[in-house]
Design goal:
The structure holds two protein chains of two kinds.
Chain A: E1 5-9, E2 12-16, E3 19-27, H1 32-46, E4 49-55, E5 70-78, E6 89-94, H2 97-103, E7 107-116, H3 122-127, E8 144-148, H4 150-158, H5 165-169, H6 172-183, H7 189-198, H8 203-223, E9 228-231, E10 240-246, H9 247-262, E11 266-270, H10 277-283, E12 292-295, H11 299-311, E13 315-320, H12 322-338, E14 342-348, H13 365-370, E15 380-382, H14 388-403, E16 406-412, H15 413-417, E17 419-423, E18 469-471, H16 486-502, E19 513-514, E20 518-525, H17 529-541, E21 546-551, E22 553-555, H18 561-565, E23 568-575, H19 580-589, E24 594-597, H20 606-616
Parallel strand pairs in A: 2-9, 3-6, 6-7, 7-8, 11-12, 11-13, 13-14, 14-16, 15-16, 20-21, 20-23, 23-24
Antiparallel strand pairs in A: 1-2, 3-5, 4-5, 10-17, 15-22, 19-21
Chain B: H1 28-38, E1 49-53, E2 68-71, H2 77-87, E3 92-98, H3 99-105, H4 107-116, E4 120-126, H5 161-167, E5 172-177, H6 181-193, E6 198-203, H7 215-218, H8 220-226, E7 227-230, E8 237-238, E9 244-248, E10 254-258, H9 279-285, E11 295-302, H10 309-324, H11 329-333, E12 338-341
Parallel strand pairs in B: 1-2, 1-3, 3-4, 4-6, 5-6, 7-11
Antiparallel strand pairs in B: 5-11, 8-9, 9-10
Helix pairs in contact in B: 1-6, 2-10, 3-4, 5-9
Classes of the chains: A alpha/beta, B alpha/beta.
């Protein structure tokens, strides 16, 4: 809230500010994700730049009112550029004491705290393991606290509808949402439209939710509870048509786009797993694009059916998270051996084993690079932001089809559920992906390669004269016949590696942002892009000579990475793992890079990055 | 327009130039020969055949069939085959698998493919032993069987493959024997004629690690006493002198009866392979473990009224395209709430 211009409007004041962070927190049954998404959609439509961070428990409904059941949704919205959901929040909505307890530590001093005063009874405090009432024990004195009887006020505004108490209480999140719209001078119109559509078969719920929303708004207007409201003007994004997009939605759209551009059928074999399932949900809607979705009996069937579909001429893809990735390992080797196009999405989450299903982590990089028996190199791409997932999906499909290889996409829980504005591309801007099916039996051999890409022909069943056998046993080069000869094996291992290395001809050289040479280079990959970009920006404003190299291609690495590493005195690799890219860079380039590692299931905070950067600069 | 009729396919058209690498005397040779003679008779162009396998002796099958072939990984053939069928429903997809491949490591895929009724034909070569890994017991090995991994006898109770398939509500379930060539070919043809999932258990000898796996059924003298050949609409009769039969009991169970002494053929169960419920076939499939009962071979169940999985999926796509029109990529990308930045 840097530039505050106060404009008197009636008795309350209106301040024009450039940025705010708001967090909705409550029970997992309180509808916080819906509330947050609605607020996000509304400010995005208004034209603010945004970044969101939904943070919810793995349990569908942990015991009500308890700390493990707290679900949160954070939004950073601004008239300027936004790279992260923000470290600390300006406004916190806490629906109960547990939500308050978990989140109040992130509220800025003098920040606005809206609490549901009806849920601070002794039993509520006990469920949150609080011995005193924070509303009375002065622990909240440094904040602007607004205890609002959300339950009572919501019921009062709905009592004439004849709903039972439980149904009325379910609308209290929209009462709170209405208050927030007033606080930030936002129109209720987009949410009203959403309610109309969402509950179109239940007119009573349409009525109830709209009334609760409007009651929240009117409550602020009538009682002047806040004394001040805020206005955040639209951001100066580059011109174009925008929509709000989450990482998983973006992947789904990217796959449909790639298949359309390639003129092949899209086949998704998938087994539900958090946080990847939304890709399956999205793609199952796109039947009008001929998309075939197959919810398999397990992770292994998910990938092997996709391999079967690719063999039969479709573009096979499979989506999962770390534990599912582990199960797919053997089949990944089969895809390497049979040299078929395939795209595998790993939406990383905290691990090992079941780990932290709903929390984010970047600890599957080495698994993606090496997690197979024997020598089985696979191209690996990682998305940087939710909207970037779209382009990474298109690129992964392009590589898979051009080189006849499986390709792994790494995303993570933070990108999957987080959202940002996406400039919708013109369909004609996206290049066609050429695909060639072998047709001519003359001289056909299943492993006779394209000399440039080393790709073998894609000869699909149903083509007369091209009958051939493939499989997991070692092949003789060119003929594809089973072959156990020692020199043939070494030759084939080297060819499969050379084929992946050859992709580097298609990988653009990278340019660091910030200083092209200097004291410190920060190298990153994946979802840390936003927080590092922001930290580098802040540090350079203080005059520090820092460059930032963000890698989209992790295998093969762009050809000039080694050169760039030499241009800086020191190299820092911040990762949400124990140092996996760090390990790769040190091994490959013999560079004395240093890691900054966080393994808490959460993204980096600015202060964490700043501290490490300053430490490395000797400040 | 004139069309030139292609010369009819022969057994030779389905043989490859690859040296067959099964042990001499292996039952797989007989099965390969039967399949190679049945395929040309099915009226399917050769390029539309795909033979998919997992891992094991039986899974080398695709290399010896001059069709499209995919030798996949252990247990996963039904999943690979499902993907092929969904992406390309008009292909004629056959899976060659074994008792370990289909019932141990790949048990999950087998039952799910059958329950979905994917139009794939499964040939399960059952020799009751792990051959390629050299002699461990399999999910169909007998209780107490002594093998390399069970020197004091197997503690496992075996699966009955046809019972398992019927339990998964497979729409076609049959059993034949490697050396009963005529019966095997007829059974394969019946499976080929079935549109939905077809599951054929082929009792097969492993002369190296489990010689005489089915000797109790295959020896000339034993054959007619211990095997009952199921034929649709015919009474359940067996025995060297065709003097024994299967009769329903009042409690719904079945029993073996001696014909004569007032019991005639008309008292026996008449085989109904087309029954829509799987329970009758299940009862038949369970006979062999019971004292005095014969082992059934032939078609236990053949009920083809269920739509194929790949058709359901692809028809759904067509219905949506008819309803909404073919997808417009530009529209899809612009869908939902959008805003313009000038």
């Amino acid at each position: 809230m840097s530039t505050v211009t106060e404009v008197p409007t009636g008795k309350t004041k209106r301040a024009v500010i450039d940025q705010a962070v708001i967090r909705f927190a409550g029970d997992s049954g309180d509808g916080m994700q819906v509330t947050g998404s609605q607020f996000t959609n509304t400010v995005a439509l208004y034209g603010n730049d945004i970044a969101t961070f939904p943070d919810y428990p793995a349990e569908i409904r942990a015991p009500a009112g308890t700390v493990p059941g707290v679900s949160g949704f954070q939004l950073n919205f601004s008239s300027g550029e936004v790279h992260t959901p923000g470290d600390s929040v300006d406004v916190l909505i806490a629906m109960n004491p547990a939500a308050l307890k978990v989140n109040v530590g992130d509220l800025k001093p003098n920040g606005i705290l809206i609490v549901n005063a009806d849920s601070f009874k002794e039993t509520d405090l006990r469920k949150a393991h609080l011995t005193t009432n924070p509303l009375e024990d002065h622990s909240l004195d440094k904040f602007r606290v607004f205890p609002v009887e959300l339950q009572r006020l919501t019921r009062a505004s709905l009592e004439h509808l004849g709903l039972d108490a439980k149904a009325m209480d379910r609308c209290k999140n929209f009462f709170a949402l209405g208050m927030c719209y007033w606080l930030y001078n936002r129109s209720m119109e987009p949410t009203v439209r959403w309610i109309d559509d969402k509950f179109k078969k239940k007119p009573l719920l349409v009525e109830a939710n709209k009334l609760a929303l409007k009651a929240g708004y009117s409550f602020c207007e009538a009682t002047e509870v806040f004394q001040i409201s805020y206005e955040i003007p639209p951001a100066q994004l580059s011109p174009g048509l925008y929509r709000n997009l989450s990482g998983n939605q973006a992947l789904a759209l990217g796959f449909v786009t790639a298949a359309t551009k390639a003129g092949v059928k899209l086949f998704l074999g998938s087994y539900p797993i958090t946080p990847a399932s939304d890709i399956l949900h999205e793609l199952s809607h796109y039947k009008d694009f001929g998309v075939l979705t197959f919810q398999a009996e397990d992770e292994i069937a998910a990938i092997t059916s996709s391999i079967g579909a690719s063999y039969a001429g479709a573009l096979g893809i499979t989506t999962t998270s770390g534990p599912g990735m582990a199960l797919k390992t053997e089949a990944l080797g089969l895809a390497v051996m049979t040299e078929l196009p395939l795209v595998i999405c790993d939406i990383q989450r905290g691990g090992p084993s079941t780990g932290l299903p709903t929390k984010t982590e970047q600890a599957d990089l080495l698994q993606a690079l090496f997690g197979r028996n024997s020598e089985a190199p696979i191209p690996v791409l990682a998305a940087a932001t939710p909207a970037d997932c779209f382009w990474v999906a298109v690129e992964a499909c392009r590589i898979a089809l051009k080189y006849m290889v499986p390709v792994i996409i790494l995303s993570d829980g933070y990108l999957a559920n987080g959202a940002e504005p996406w400039r919708v591309p013109n369909v004609d801007e996206i290049p066609r992906i050429p695909v060639h099916f072998a047709k001519n039996p003359e001289g056909f051999l299943p492993y006779k390669r394209n000399p440039e890409t080393l790709a073998r022909p894609w000869a699909i069943p149903g083509t007369p004269g091209l009958e051939h056998r493939i499989g997991g046993l070692e092949k003789q080069d060119v003929t594809g016949n089973v072959n156990y000869e020692p020199l043939n094996h070494e030759n084939m291992v080297r060819i499969r590696a050379a084929k992946i290395d050859a992709i580097v001809q298609d990988v653009p050289n990278v340019m660091p942002s910030g200083d092209p040479e200097g004291d410190l280079l920060i190298v990153s990959w994946g979802s840390t892009f936003g927080s590092i970009t922001q930290a580098v920006h802040g540090q350079r404003e203080k005059g520090r000579k820092i460059g930032h190299l963000h890698l989209r291609y992790l295998n093969p690495l762009p050809a000039n990475v080694g050169d760039i590493l030499k241009r800086y005195k020191r190299v820092l690799v911040p990762e949400l793992n124990m140092g996996q890219l760090l390990w790769v860079l040190r091994a490959k380039y013999l560079v004395n890079a240093v890691g900054l590692n966080k393994i808490q299931g959460r993204p980096f905070k600015q202060v964490e990055l700043d501290q490490k950067i300053e430490e490395m600069l000797g400040l | 327009m004139t069309t030139t009729a292609l010369p009819p396919l022969t057994k030779k058209d389905f043989q490859t130039d690859q040296e067959v690498r099964w042990c001499p005397g292996c039952g797989d040779y007989a099965i390969l020969s039967a399949v190679q003679s049945v395929f040309p008779e099915l009226g399917v162009p050769r390029e539309n055949f795909v033979v998919v396998s997992g891992i094991g002796c039986s899974s080398r099958f695709p290399y010896y069939m001059n069709t499209y072939g995919f030798h996949s990984i252990h247990g996963r053939a039904p999943a690979v085959a499902s993907g092929i069928k969904i992406a390309h429903p008009e292909l004629e997809v056959w899976v060659a698998t074994g008792d370990g491949d289909a019932l141990a490591i790949g048990g999950n895929h087998t039952i799910h493919m059958l329950r979905r009724n994917v139009g794939v034909k499964v040939l399960l070569f059952n020799n009751r032993i792990y051959g390629l890994t050299k002699g461990q017991y399999s999910p169909t090995s007998e209780f107490h069987k002594v093998t390399k991994s069970t020197p004091y006898g197997s503690p496992d109770r075996p699966f009955n493959p046809v019972s398992l398939a019927i339990g998964a509500e497979a729409t076609f379930v049959a059993r034949s024997v490697d050396i009963f060539q005529a019966h095997l070919k007829e059974t394969l043809k019946a499976a080929a004629a079935h549109r939905g999932s077809a599951f054929v258990e082929i009792l097969q000898n492993c002369n190296i690690f489990n010689d005489g796996a089915w000797i109790g059924l295959t020896e000339k003298d034993a054959r007619s006493e211990h095997v009952i050949q199921l034929e649709h609409n015919k009474p359940l009769i067996f025995g060297k002198n065709r003097d024994k039969g299967i009769r329903r009991r009042a409690d719904g169970d079945i029993e073996v009866v001696q014909l004569g002494n007032g019991i005639s053929e008309s008292d026996l169960v008449v085989h109904d392979a087309h029954h829509s419920r799987p329970s009758y076939a299940f009862l038949l499939s369970h006979m062999e473990g019971r004292p005095g009962f014969p082992t059934p071979i032939g078609v236990l169940r053949s009920w083809d009224d269920l739509p194929r999985y790949e058709d359901v999926i692809n028809e759904q796509v067509q219905e949506i395209i008819q309803k909404k029109g073919a997808g417009d990529l530009g529209k899809l990308l612009r869908a939902g709430d959008t805003w313009e930045v000038k």
